[in-house]
Write a sequence for this structure.
């Protein structure tokens, strides 16, 4: 990687070469000429100015300061030469200053300056950061959620408008935004792909090809980091998964699977919805999609994915599409847009249980929703939201389940980045019975207090939990309850829930409060932001941990420790 | 033939020859060292420095460094001259002249390095 000095300084020097040469020459001519002009000293004797005085006179004459004629009054010849010198040197200065100003205003120069600044910002990062490629709806949602949790982010997008939008956002922490093409491997290196603190890269551009290249480059150049990529098509998804992309996310398939889950096991769907949502947003409590007769308007990527999943559940599905032959629709498809009452009636809206407006035009979707509501007021309606700006309109139209691709993508990505164990947990939870899932849903709801909870993974290690390791080394047993209670009052429990404990590859779901911690354990929690902060106290502070385990508050410090040891015996001495 | 290369080589060699011309002569004799020659050496050396600006090659960087050394030495020599004659009022004594000439001798060495590097670069390009 080239350093900033390697590109900017030569650029300035190269551009400044002609004006500097002109300046040096002008000064040389003026100074040398002045020493050659015949002059007189104070007594009228012939005198030639020396270099010392000539340089002095020209130095104050050139920038038009003018201290007068020294050391003796000038003769006519000297005055003639100084007149000439003034024009020569002033023009040379104007040229030099003009060049500097035009250089500063030059777009290429400003671009180089900005790139150098961004590179420096990335180079100086000293905490884990993520690279987000593509700053569209999904990208901006992701960046906002990450920065809200004080994570550092670097954005790469080829569109100038996107980077300008990023610069105008007030995100709380500085987010360097590179206007670069993410498909070029070198550009990713500039954004910090090989940086030692680069924790992960997220490819959420609008092009499958670009996402694929980003994922490939990242896996080849930095094997240890998490790579999350968005796939628009099934082929793209398979391709990306084939070389070890950590998580491939397809918004429409994701939605269709969720829909199936919501119909099959509502509690599990709620658990998944809450744990993978964007933290600090409202906990969604939506009416559950019914099983029965579905109408899907628009047989595109979303329509197809939902159709496949609903058919797997054995439901009756009617497709309404503009071009049944061209879009390879199933045989009994109703031709039409779905925005007119006639088409919807033909698809049997009166007896249908649910409708999905899945066209790629938000105005059409809105019209379908309104028409359907008039024809069948009780019908369950899901609608695709192509643009974040249509959200309030769809909400006002009474959509039961909005399909928000950017939200789905962002929340899935966040759950991968924040809590790597979450996917394992959800897999395990799927296998449990309904009663277990219902209880868990209740528990999460109790902890969350109406907003989406944070999920995080705790590792019992020297870096994350030094106090716990210290206690374990001394043979003190540390129960889970020691870290799930308030550090000031151990009778009060924190708003958090231990979802899963991983020890040597073994998963323990919902570990009990009496579970003994061991070095190397990984525990998945969900809970409030506040609980996440308070939990670090007993993890880091030996005294607090001792209080949490035994309920005793022991004075600390070398002197106190000695005194207490003398008074109570060697129990507390280390 | 590239005019830019001609100008470049011309100034580097001229800086060397002027420097050498000033250096030549009895070490501490002011009559053997002309002030105009020192002035010309400084100006040409400065021009040679500016011409080397913006080179990205390794040899370009060393050329620039050598040139900066020569500038520094020559300007120091001129300063000693000015200080001795107009500020301290000791005049051009043999001791003052000796230090001026020895400073310009240092610059001569730097200029020699420049010229050698130029020759090396040119010959390696030809093959």
């Amino acid at each position: 990687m080239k350093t900033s000095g390697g590109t900017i300084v030569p650029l300035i020097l190269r551009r400044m070469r002609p004006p500097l040469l002109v300046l040096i020459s002008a000064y040389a001519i003026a100074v040398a000429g002045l020493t050659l002009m015949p002059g007189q000293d104070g007594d009228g004797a012939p005198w030639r100015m020396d270099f010392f005085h000539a340089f002095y006179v020209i130095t104050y004459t050139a920038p038009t300061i003018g201290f007068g004629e020294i050391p003796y009054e000038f003769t006519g010849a000297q005055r003639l030469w100084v007149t000439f010198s003034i024009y020569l040197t002033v023009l040379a200065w104007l040229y030099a200053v003009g060049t500097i100003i035009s250089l500063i205003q030059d777009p290429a120069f400003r671009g180089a300056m900005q790139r150098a600044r961004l590179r420096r910002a990335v180079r100086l990062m000293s905490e884990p950061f993520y690279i987000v490629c593509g700053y569209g709806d999904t990208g901006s949602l992701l960046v906002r959620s990450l920065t809200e949790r004080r994570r550092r982010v670097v954005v790469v997008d080829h569109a100038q408008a996107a980077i300008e939008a990023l610069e105008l956002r007030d995100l709380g922490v500085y987010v360097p935004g590179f206007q670069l093409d993410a498909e070029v491997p070198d550009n990713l290196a500039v954004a910090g792909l090989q940086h030692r603190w680069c924790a992960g890269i997220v490819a959420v551009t609008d092009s499958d090809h670009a996402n694929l290249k980003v994922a490939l480059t990242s896996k080849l150049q930095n094997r240890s980091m998490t790579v999350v990529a968005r796939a628009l098509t099934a082929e793209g998804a398979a391709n990306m998964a084939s070389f070890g992309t950590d998580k491939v996310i397809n918004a429409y398939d994701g939605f269709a699977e969720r829909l199936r889950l919501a119909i099959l096991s509502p509690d599990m769907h709620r658990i998944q919805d809450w744990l993978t949502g964007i933290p600090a947003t409202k906990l969604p409590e939506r009416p559950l999609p019914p099983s029965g007769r579905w109408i899907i308007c628009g047989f595109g990527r979303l329509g197809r994915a939902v159709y496949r999943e609903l058919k797997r559940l054995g439901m009756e599905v009617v497709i309404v599409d503009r071009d049944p032959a061209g879009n390879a629709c199933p045989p009994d498809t109703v031709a039409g847009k779905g925005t007119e009452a006639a088409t919807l009636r033909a698809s049997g809206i009166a007896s249908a249980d649910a409708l999905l407006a899945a066209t790629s035009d938000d105005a059409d979707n809105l019209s379908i929703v309104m028409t359907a509501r008039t024809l069948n007021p009780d019908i369950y309606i899901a609608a695709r939201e192509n643009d974040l700006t249509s959200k309030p309109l769809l909400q006002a139209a009474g959509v039961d389940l909005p399909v928000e691709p950017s939200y789905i993508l962002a929340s899935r990505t966040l759950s991968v980045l924040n809590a790597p164990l979450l996917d394992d947990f959800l897999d395990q939870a799927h296998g449990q019975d309904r009663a277990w899932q219902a209880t868990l849903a209740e528990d999460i709801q109790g902890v969350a207090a109406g907003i989406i909870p944070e999920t995080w993974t705790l590792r019992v290690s020297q870096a994350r939990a030094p106090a716990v390791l210290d206690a374990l080394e001394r043979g003190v047993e540390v129960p889970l309850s020691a870290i799930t209670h308030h550090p000031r009052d151990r009778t009060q429990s924190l708003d958090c829930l231990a979802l899963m404990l991983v020890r040597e590859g073994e998963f323990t779901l919902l570990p009990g409060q009496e579970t003994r911690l061991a070095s190397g354990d990984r525990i998945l929690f969900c809970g409030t932001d506040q609980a996440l902060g308070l939990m670090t106290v007993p993890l880091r502070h030996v005294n607090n941990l001792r209080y949490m385990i035994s309920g005793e508050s022991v004075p600390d410090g070398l002197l106190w420790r000695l005194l207490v040891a003398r008074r109570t015996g060697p129990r507390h001495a280390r | 033939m590239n005019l830019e290369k001609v100008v470049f080589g011309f100034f580097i060699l001229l800086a060397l020859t002027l420097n050498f011309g000033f250096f030549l002569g009895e070490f501490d004799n002011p009559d053997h060292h002309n002030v105009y020659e020192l002035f010309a050496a400084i100006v040409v050396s400065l021009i040679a420095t500016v011409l080397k600006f913006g080179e990205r090659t390794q040899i370009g960087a060393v050329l620039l460094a050598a040139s900066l050394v020569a500038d520094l030495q020559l300007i120091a020599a001129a300063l000693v001259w000015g200080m001795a004659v107009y500020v301290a009022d000791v005049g051009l004594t043999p001791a003052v002249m000796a230090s001026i000439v020895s400073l310009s001798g240092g610059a001569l060495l730097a200029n020699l390095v420049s010229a050698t590097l130029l020759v090396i670069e040119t010959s390696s390009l030809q093959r």
Q: What stands out?
A: Residues 5-36 of chain A form the longest helix (32 residues). Chain A touches chain B at residues 6, 10-11, 13-14, 16-17, 20-21, 24-25, 28, 31-32, 35, 50-53 (CB under 8 Å).
